């Protein structure tokens, strides 16, 4: 039973390029979350999605960042025109039911983005 | 902000000793979860404790929750070198927000 799968694990982009991070939730999970972790810090919530719907994007930067979770295929976190400050680990998580209340949230191994 | 805070920020102990990490948070919660993160890796879920529970055990882990003090502790007994990692507490929000709020973590080093 595969866990939350993220790819790529490591990604290097030059300033101004686009970064696409992919996440396949655990089998049977339809709730996906994206978090960002800056060096030496805890995780910060970015966005919560269900299939074909963005439920809560209160943690997403207003510009350059977007997320989707299509009916078929993985969830995608897209960062356009990356800047050095976007360098971080991006974690995807999934749960069987909605939200963290009473539900275990399972995390992937993360995608480490480095902007040079 | 509801973000939790772990204490201490860093802890170094000898193998075989017990390690205690504390977490404080600010607003009412439904649950509190503890996670472990090895360097450069993802988060591994350790234990979930609900707001109506006071103590929970899982193997060498013991978690307590004091909602009146808005605090939790994670005790790892008979520590091993493999326990070396960062440990995070994460809370949800009673208001029903869709995300977990993480602290900045405790970096535990277990010296063989």
Could you describe the 3D structure shown?
- The complex is a heterodimer of chains A (116) and B (112).
- With 116 residues, chain A is mainly beta.
- Chain A contains no helices and eleven strands.
- Chain A has strands at 5-7, 10-13, 19-24, 31-37, 43-50, 53-56, 65-68, 75-79, 88-95, 106-107, 111-115.
- In chain A, the strands form two sheets. In chain A, strands 2, 4, 5, 6, 9, 10 and 11 form a seven-stranded mixed sheet that branches. A four-stranded antiparallel sheet of chain A has the order 1-3-8-7, with no helix packed on it.
- In chain A, a hairpin with a 2-residue loop joins strand 5 and strand 6 (53-56).
- The radius of gyration of chain A is 13 Å and the shape is globular.
- The relative contact order of chain A is 0.33.
- The model of chain A has no long low-confidence stretch (mean pLDDT 91).
- Chain B has 112 residues and is mainly β.
- Chain B has strands at 5-7, 10-14, 19-24, 31-37, 43-50, 55-58, 61-66, 71-76, 85-91, 101-102, 106-111.
- In chain B, the strands form two sheets. In chain B, strands 2, 4, 5, 9, 10 and 11 form a six-stranded mixed sheet that branches. Chain B has a five-stranded antiparallel sheet with strand order 1-3-8-7-6, with no helix packed on it.
- In chain B, a hairpin with a 2-residue loop joins strand 6 and strand 7.
- Chain B is globular.
- The model of chain B has no long low-confidence stretch (mean pLDDT 90).
- The chains are: A mainly beta (116), B mainly beta (112).
- The A-B interface holds A 4, 6, 33, 35, 40-45, 48, 55-56, 58-59, 91, 93, 98-102, 104-110, 112 and B 3-4, 30-31, 33, 35, 40-45, 48, 50, 88, 90, 92, 96-105.
Name the features.
heterodimer, A: 116 residues, mainly beta, seven-stranded mixed sheet, four-stranded antiparallel sheet, 11 strands, 48% strand, globular, B: 112 residues, six-stranded mixed sheet, five-stranded antiparallel sheet, 0% helix
